[in-house]
Amino acid sequence: METGSTKQRILEEALGLFSLKGFDAVSVEQIAAAVGIKAPSLYKHYKSKQAIFDAIFVQMQHRYDAQAAAMELHLSNAGCDGEQFAGIAAADLTRRVQALVRFSLHDEFVSRFRRLMTLEQFRTPELAALYTQRYVTRILSYHEELFRGLIARGELRGADPRAMAWQYVSPVLVLLSICDRQPEWEDAAMKELEAHVRQFQAVYEGGK
Amino acid sequence: METGSTKQRILEEALGLFSLKGFDAVSVEQIAAAVGIKAPSLYKHYKSKQAIFDAIFVQMQHRYDAQAAAMELHLSNAGCDGEQFAGIAAADLTRRVQALVRFSLHDEFVSRFRRLMTLEQFRTPELAALYTQRYVTRILSYHEELFRGLIARGELRGADPRAMAWQYVSPVLVLLSICDRQPEWEDAAMKELEAHVRQFQAVYEGGK
DNA sequence: GTCTATATCCAGATAGAC
DNA sequence: GTCTATCTGGATATAGAC
User: Fold this and answer.
1) Interface of chain B against chain A, CB under 8 Å?
2) Most distant CA pair in chain A: distance in Å?
3) What is the CATH number of domain A72-204?
4) Contact in structure between B16 and B34 (CB atoms under 8 Å)
5) Three-state DSSP class for A206?
6) Which fold has domain B72-208?
7) Is the whole model's pTM more than 0.90, yes or no?
8) pLDDT averaged over 10-residue windows placed end to end, chain A, 208 residues
């Protein structure tokens, strides 16, 4: 019942509503009702509806940074020297991508924030760039460097590592977007994902 | 200046605004201003803001059907007997996908409608299903059957045609979505697309 | 911190003159 | 078909009691 709890619940309920209907379609009164208070009380915690939206982004950035540190340790410097790929066999790719997808789908904050970004991506060039960077470019670049390293070490058949990254990553992104709008697809999506990874490995595994 | 012209201009201006900001964020007055009339005059052409939205969908369905008849002649019955693939060499795939992407990006009605769908996809299960069906499933199924036929005819290396379709189609969809939010990416996207098709052909071309 | 009451604004939509 | 004037409802946000 303390301040922090209500303040946090406002963020969570607002994100839940924003991610379904978009910022404009959600009223402050709806957010307040979801929290269990009246709309005017909400203004004791945030000075405006926009401030709630902004706070969601700040919190998401913190979570993203923490997650990046934990799961994607080498995301930004994957291509420095190749040393960080020691011990990463091609067979590990399956586990890695499955873990990433499951987390992206099941973490409420992450999946809701992604849907919110999907709904607001055309608002400003900054949001558009953030979307592409976070949900495409970084993942793509990471895999490109990963494949480049695996090819160099002879664990994958030689080929254009960037094109390989597109082939590998894109189906995952598309399946994620399908599950975002149709959660009932999840089981089917995981099967498609499995077949996709199997096919990818069959094509590229066993270099030299 | 006749009725039909104004009525059509309302649809086009409304679609342009909806596709940028979403249905809720656009006011009837904004639409009217874009057309060059006052808001009340607009109600002589459509009985409500929602009616404009619905009319956009009806018109898009007509365009989609016409386009499907012209460009994707065999989309819905591609797998019937394999006969319709006569004369389709693997090399034709590049031209086909490039034509599809260019059309999807440059046709104002098609690209704006796709952005509108992106913004409204979470509204109802029907819109979600329509989005997946139109922008993923149909394209995917078409290519799956196409590859199945090409493999049977020995023009592509034998493999899982569905997984091949995911690998082939997904990068195209992701690049499209990037260009939708960041049009300045188009040149880069076409280059990525070219490399993607080249890589796909290098991997799968030459069956038997 | 929460409430009721209210101020202010703006949106969708209608009435009726021209 | 277009306009001005207006109705009505709902939204953000504030004031002030408890």
Assistant:
1) 19-22, 24-25, 115, 118-119, 121-123, 125, 128-129, 131-132, 136, 159-160, 162-164, 166-167, 170-171, 173-174, 178, 180-182, 185, 192, 195-196, 198-200, 202-203
2) 68
3) 1.10.357
4) yes
5) coil
6) Tetracycline Repressor; domain 2 (1.10.357)
7) yes
8) 77 98 98 98 98 97 86 53 51 76 94 98 97 97 93 89 98 98 95 93 80
